[in-house]
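Supplementary Note 3. Input sequence used for the single-chain structure prediction.
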Amino acid sequence: MLTYQEALDYIYSFIDYERTSLEGPHRFDLSRITALLELLGQPHRRYKAVHIAGTKGKGSTAAMIESILRAAGYKTGLFTSPHLHTYRERIQTGGQLITEKRLVAHVERLIPLAERFSGLTTFEITTALAFSYFAHEKVEWAILETGLGGRLDTTNVADPAVVVITLIGYDHVDVLGHRLSQIAFEKAGIIKEGRPVVSMPQRPTALRVIKRACRERKAPLTLVGRDWTWERKGFDLKGQRLDLHCHQKPHAGSSTLCRDYASLSLPFLGAHQLVNATTVVATVAELARQGVSLSPQNVAEGLKTTSWPGRLEVLNEEPLLVVDGAHNLESTEALAQALKEYFGFQRLILVFGALQGHDFKVMLRELLPLADRVFVTRSLHPRAIDAQTLAQQFKALGRRCQIEPQVDEALWKALSQAEEADLVCATGSLSVAAEARAAWLESQGVSFQRDPPPTWQVSGQVPA
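The predicted structure, written as discrete structure tokens, is reproduced below.
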């Protein structure tokens, strides 16, 4: 029997586009995952699914939908990526992470099947693991977040009851295309014939692509901002409240969840989370229209109890300590807006690190006008940009920064210079947010689930 560490090492031994550069030759298609799932007995056909693609908001949207379905008594599966502290976060059932023992068992089942293929990726192995595990656990609903794009993403073998498109922006442009229309085409590739689509408000270019795909595939479209609207009603550091309004006309078979909601509680901050939550309620209303047993009480309870850490998460109040996984233009715009709207602070002290393949220059344009002091750092992620390289960009922008090569040291230096009325924000990538979060939780004696360093990290040899 494999150990948990050996199982992780096996998973990471495949081509891993999260940890290595996407530059150079690569082939994305669904042939390998389709064949692998066939050998596993088509596990993804044994439960219903909600499929989510987009550039920003996928993870929190998936987490909220799963929480509502679980509040209604359904056995749920949640598949997301990447993770904060443990690989097991990616594969959850009933709100619980896959156990080390279960993960090992499913890896051992996969090994002889995977040997029949060449060119498998870590994400394909992970998708097969998740789908197989969900079938083994007899989940009723799987909430699936795409990894990269949509049309050729491994999750696109699913046949969902509802498709969700979150905000589309510029990310992974070397793979998905440099024009918004190209990126939207890839994201809209998860739209299936006749399957309802719920979309967040989009830029006109992206919306045209989505509408065209819906027309071509005869997929009815619910558009948030038109068919559903929201109002923020109040907030504190623990979350916010919102009212929702459904503007769809009642018709035969219409959903009992298409109604107005007053003062729903959301344990997340940021105007973007209000949009996410509205999209979630529009999605579960469509499920209810299809006959899924859901009540307004399930909606309220599911939203209130959703957990999705590392995204505009407040870890301390005096001084304020916030970690956020913003790593592209859209998410950094949302972070900058939230810092201004939701927090009162005297100075902003920024702890910043980024990954290769992400446009950190556009992120800095959003954050630097707010920052009084900056610490640049490098996470342990294999694609992390050297802190010296980041510092050179700061110099080119006419800003001074302090270099701290390790995230935890950067965090402690920032906090040591912060007064009670200041705000320290660790951001630039999910890995920076995760390492800052882990350092803080450990300092407070808070237990949390965390993987040991992978063998490749200890040896310094990143898998090819």
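The first helix runs from residue 4 to 12. The chain has two domains: 4-304, 313-459.
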